[in-house]
Amino acid sequence: xxxxxxxxxxxxxxxxxxxxxxxxxxxxxxxxxxxxxxxxxxxxxxxxxxxxxxxxxxxxxxxxxxxxxxxxxxxxxxxxxxxxxxxxxxxxxxxxxxxxxxxxxxxxxxxxxxxxxxxxxxxxxxxxxxxxxxxxxxxxxxxxxxxxxxxxxxxxxxx
Length: 159
What we know:
This protein has a seven-stranded antiparallel β-sheet with strand order 1-2-3-7-6-5-4, sandwiched between helices. β5 and β6 form a beta hairpin. The chain is an alpha+beta fold. It has three helices and seven strands. It has a single domain (3-158), classed as Protein Transport Mog1p, Chain A (3-Layer(aba) Sandwich), CATH 3.40.1000. α1 runs antiparallel to α2 (25-43).
């Protein structure tokens, strides 16, 4: 994936997170279609967006699903065989951010760490597999409006 495409994709996926957290039921399908079109324009590939309750997390490997987390959104994109495909999954857990971060650090212990940042309200972890064919970015933010807990955004890409 070219750097420009990666930046555009990151911006679109971030927008989907904001839309997901702000969407109400009647507008979800419209929001999904609009986001799908934007992602397809930005990546040149096919996109599928799923917002709201009952989000399918089955495409995310078990090791990267936080136990007991509720799926909030899924944005899937496919480019081509050379560039690969991936998805962003957004989940919510009532557990504190440090516990969720420890889970992901353990789950990714066999992968090469590219970036790890702990900030006041968030944690960013970026890893790649030994073959460099899989990449994962985990962004954790503390939920302040729902009485605590952790918002979990996982971007998983494979070639």
